Amino acid sequence: TSNGSTKDEL
Amino acid sequence: MNIFRLAGDMTHLASVLVLLLKIHTIKSCAGISLKTQELYALVFASRYLDIFTHYVSFYNTVMKLIFLGSAFSIVWYIRRHKLVRRSYDKDHDTFRHYFIVLPCLILALLIHEKFTFRVVMWTFSLYLEAVAILPQLVLLQRTRNIDNLTGQYVFLLGAYRALYILNWVYRYFTEPHYVHWITWISGLIQTLLYADFFYYYFQSWKNNVKLELPA
């Protein structure tokens, strides 16, 4: 889920 | 998805609905900064570039569409709708876009996780969202008379940001390697910009008097 991405958030 | 994230998204959604309610049913955008609304439209347009190529969940896609659609329709209403545009306080909404957009763009070009178009635009949208409320806050301070819906709109936007911080704290402790400095710092700055507003909002609520920001 993580690894440098908060792109699962709005 | 944790409860803070969901509550944050719902608060964000509520803020948009409050604003649309004001604009659509009362046909007024008094006290609303068009500059801030245009900046939000730019924020969502640059952040959701991957909306059709990078699928996360049905929930995410629907919410992205709602935020994009509402942002652009609010701008359209204020600029084009013949009744709504009359109530627009143009003389007090004087913040210059490029004072905000340009520094954010430069910062995104300098500080990002990866130098690709998508990631730089995504980073730009984070920086821009952090400060996009400024024209609105300036307008509130200049307007002696803040109506209920406008006050609630800004309060809900601030609450959404505060809940996102709780969401990050929760995720930091529950997910491995969950560290996102760029998102966190810009999110923290964004929330701090509301501190002053929150203070006067709660004061007016506690004392049961009309919300007014000091000049």
From TrEMBL, chain B:
<keyword id="KW-0256">Endoplasmic reticulum</keyword>
<keyword id="KW-0732">Signal</keyword>
<dbReference type="Pfam" id="PF00810">
    <property type="entry name" value="ER_lumen_recept"/>
</dbReference>
<feature type="transmembrane region" description="Helical">
    <location>
        <begin position="152"/>
        <end position="170"/>
    </location>
</feature>
<keyword id="KW-0931">ER-Golgi transport</keyword>
<dbReference type="GO" id="GO:0006621">
    <property type="term" value="P:protein retention in ER lumen"/>
</dbReference>
<keyword id="KW-0813">Transport</keyword>
<feature type="transmembrane region" description="Helical">
    <location>
        <begin position="182"/>
        <end position="202"/>
    </location>
</feature>
<dbReference type="GO" id="GO:0046923">
    <property type="term" value="F:ER retention sequence binding"/>
</dbReference>
<comment type="similarity">
    <text>Belongs to the ERD2 family.</text>
</comment>
<protein>
    <recommendedName>
        <fullName>ER lumen protein-retaining receptor</fullName>
    </recommendedName>
</protein>
<keyword id="KW-0675">Receptor</keyword>
<dbReference type="InterPro" id="IPR000133">
    <property type="entry name" value="ER_ret_rcpt"/>
</dbReference>
<dbReference type="GO" id="GO:0016192">
    <property type="term" value="P:vesicle-mediated transport"/>
</dbReference>
<feature type="signal peptide">
    <location>
        <begin position="1"/>
        <end position="31"/>
    </location>
</feature>
<keyword id="KW-0812">Transmembrane</keyword>
<keyword id="KW-1133">Transmembrane helix</keyword>
<dbReference type="GO" id="GO:0015031">
    <property type="term" value="P:protein transport"/>
</dbReference>
<dbReference type="GO" id="GO:0005789">
    <property type="term" value="C:endoplasmic reticulum membrane"/>
</dbReference>
<keyword id="KW-0472">Membrane</keyword>
<feature type="transmembrane region" description="Helical">
    <location>
        <begin position="98"/>
        <end position="115"/>
    </location>
</feature>
<feature type="transmembrane region" description="Helical">
    <location>
        <begin position="55"/>
        <end position="78"/>
    </location>
</feature>
<feature type="transmembrane region" description="Helical">
    <location>
        <begin position="121"/>
        <end position="140"/>
    </location>
</feature>
<keyword id="KW-0653">Protein transport</keyword>
